[in-house]
């Protein structure tokens, strides 16, 4: 029993310490599932006295009027030598062994504002009228507060009724019946049996004949005000109480189940049963909570390393996992890389098609360029210059689609970088690093794009700089038209001659275009895609190596809210784990 109670106290105190039932409470609380004991009853009915005698020490303020103005939470701890000390929820770590000091702290705390929760609750007495100096609402306020405590299904109610008043007027019975109609968690306690009118007795009540409860009624004789004034101690008071029942002609037959000591034992037994019945539920609640905490903690990621090496390692690791995700996008493990192929397979060919070389090589244009190239002297055999100009001016238009392919792939890569950034869980934790990595990756892509543009346009320009002579040599030489120097100048510029030149050039340009259609993607992949896969963050890493601890720290500056959350989750997890270990020890041990 001792272990069970101390287990409950441990868990309950730990929960309270963590503010488990404070505002910031997304997690289920242990609080709700653990039993507490509260005393209820009218003012001066003997509540504090009863609680005190269960605990066995003098420390709750007692007297006429509302002394206990609000719930007090108190725990008792046993220490090795058998000496006891009290500890308040509102004063963690402060141990009171001097029970006079405990009494003072209660009185002081009663005047302070904080509301604390409890293991044993000494509730203020229920009243019927507001006395001088009290607000009218006090009667209801107290009643509501008391009710809020005892309506919790895990609250064991000690309903205190003074024997020197008619039971029919008992506030304790009235309110406990309201919250526990079947009396499953209510203990009826009859105080002040020694103060009953001569000639009357409480036998009917104590035998359960007047008002039936699940548990047997218990009569007690607490210390009177006179006893307290004379500082009669608890041990003496208990002895006197025992003697009172044993020697009383009315209660002698009930003596074995009367008195504070018996009440204490009864309560312990009941508490034990309640706790035992709650253990499986508690265990599953705890393990569920542990799971939730672990999930959230792993979602929040690891805490930041403290030394420079650790920080650098962390950053590199995070970057590596980003890089990995980025590669997966390109390789097809994740989506998006296929868009690049679409540029080569679709966008580039259709852009090339839209160039419409045949329009460029219209008769008029051919004539214009050929004539211009001739200058003041018409060509003699073949319009060499004219051919070159026609070819160059057509090929140069391919630069446009080539550049567009570079830009399109660049846009896709940038998109994949952003996608990968947001898919890198570890980066979520560090907003600054996220921004920096993303900027560094985009910078690299920009540099690669420039390189790619240079190389790709060079491919196009190279085609203009040197023509494939064989192509023209293989063309059928028509001696009659065009190739013959004996033709008159007028023949040389007639439509069919020009059409022939146009179609020769078109055939050549189409051939070149088909080959560029194949080589542009190679250049783009080589300069952009392959490079991005190979060394997207190389420059960033080089810069990283030069950074000092302070700068590394600023890269890993977590959102303070996240840091705080992690710490508090960690603490909670620790608490729940130790509670779990404690409970397992009780059940398996
Ligand atoms: P509370 O207001 O319900 O907490 O009641 P207290 O425990 O403060 O008791 C009120 C007064 O009644 C105190 O002076 C106690 O000494 C006295 N008292 C309580 N119980 C008994 C009892 O069983 N017998 C006698 N003679 N006096 C009692
Ligand atoms: Mg009291």
TrEMBL record:
Keyword Repeat attributed: no
Domain Dynamin-type G residue range list: 31-280
Name by which UniProt lists this protein: Dynamin-related protein 5A
CDD domains in the record: DLP_1
Gene3D superfamilies linked to this entry: Dynamin, middle domain, P-loop containing nucleotide triphosphate hydrolases
Stretches assigned to the GED domain: 498-589
Pfam families: Dynamin_M (PF01031), Dynamin_N (PF00350), GED (PF02212)
Family recorded in the similarity comment: Belongs to the TRAFAC class dynamin-like GTPase superfamily. Dynamin/Fzo/YdjA family.
Keywords: GTP-binding, Motor protein, Nucleotide-binding
Keyword Cytoplasm: no
């Amino acid at each position: 029993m001792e272990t069970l109670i101390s287990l409950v106290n441990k868990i309950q105190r730990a929960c309270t310490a963590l503010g488990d039932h404070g505002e910031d409470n997304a997690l289920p609380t242990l609080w709700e599932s653990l039993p507490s004991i509260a005393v209820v009853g009218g003012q001066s009915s003997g509540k504090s006295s009863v609680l005190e005698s269960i605990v066995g020490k003098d420390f709750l303020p007692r007297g006429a009027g509302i002394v206990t103005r609000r719930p007090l939470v108190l725990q008792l701890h046993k220490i090795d030598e058998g000496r006891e000390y009290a500890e308040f929820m509102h004063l963690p770590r402060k141990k009171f062994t001097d029970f006079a000091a405990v009494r003072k702290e209660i009185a002081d705390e009663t005047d302070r504002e904080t509301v604390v929760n409890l293991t044993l609750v000494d509730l203020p007495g229920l009243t019927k009228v507001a006395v001088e100096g009290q607000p009218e609402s006090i009667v209801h306020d107290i009643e509501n507060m008391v009710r809020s405590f005892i309506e919790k299904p895990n609250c064991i109610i000690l309903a205190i009724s003074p024997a020197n008043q008619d039971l029919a007027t008992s506030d304790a019975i009235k309110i406990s019946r309201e919250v526990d109609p079947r009396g499953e968690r209510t203990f009826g306690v009859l105080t002040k049996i020694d103060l009953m009118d001569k000639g009357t007795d409480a036998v009917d009540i104590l035998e359960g004949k007047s008002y039936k409860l699940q548990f047997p009624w218990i009569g007690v004789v607490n210390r009177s005000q006179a006893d307290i004034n004379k500082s009669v101690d608890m041990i003496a008071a208990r002895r006197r109480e025992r003697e009172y029942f044993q020697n009383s002609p009315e209660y002698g037959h009930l003596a074995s189940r009367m008195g504070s000591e018996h009440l204490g034992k009864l309560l312990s037994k009941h508490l034990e049963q309640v706790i035992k019945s709650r253990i499986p539920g508690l265990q599953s609640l705890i393990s569920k909570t542990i799971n939730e905490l672990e999930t959230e903690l792993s979602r929040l990621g690891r805490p930041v390393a403290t030394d420079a090496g650790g920080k650098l390692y962390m950053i590199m690791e995070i970057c590596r996992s980003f890089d990995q995700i980025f590669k997966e996008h390109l390789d097809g493990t994740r989506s998006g890389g296929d868009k690049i192929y679409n540029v080569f397979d679709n966008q580039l060919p259709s852009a090339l098609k839209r160039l419409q070389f045949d329009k460029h090589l219209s008769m008029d244009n051919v004539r214009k360029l050929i004539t211009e190239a001739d200058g003041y002297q018409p060509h003699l055999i073949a319009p060499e210059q004219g051919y070159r100009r026609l070819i160059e001016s057509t090929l140069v238009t391919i630069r446009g689609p080539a550049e567009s392919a570079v830009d399109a792939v660049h846009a896709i890569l940038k998109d994949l970088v952003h996608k990968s950034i947001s898919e890198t869980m570890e980066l979520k934790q560090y907003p600054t690093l996220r921004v920096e990595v993303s900027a560094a990756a985009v910078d690299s892509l920009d540099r690669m794009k420039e390189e790619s543009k240079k190389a790709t346009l060079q491919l196009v320009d190279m085609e203009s700089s040197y023509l494939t002579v064989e192509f023209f040599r293989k063309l059928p030489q028509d001696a009659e038209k065009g190739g013959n120097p004996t033709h008159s100048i007028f023949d040389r510029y007639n439509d069919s001659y020009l059409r022939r030149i146009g179609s020769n050039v078109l055939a050549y340009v189409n051939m070149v275009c088909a080959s560029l259609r194949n080589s542009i993607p190679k250049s783009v992949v080589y300069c952009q895609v392959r490079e991005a896969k190979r060394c997207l963050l190389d420059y960033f890493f080089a810069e990283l190596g030069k950074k000092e601890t302070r700068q590394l720290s600023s890269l890993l500056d977590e959102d303070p809210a996240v840091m705080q959350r992690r710490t508090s989750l960690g603490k909670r997890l620790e608490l729940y784990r130790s509670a779990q270990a404690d409970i397992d020890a009780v059940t398996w041990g």
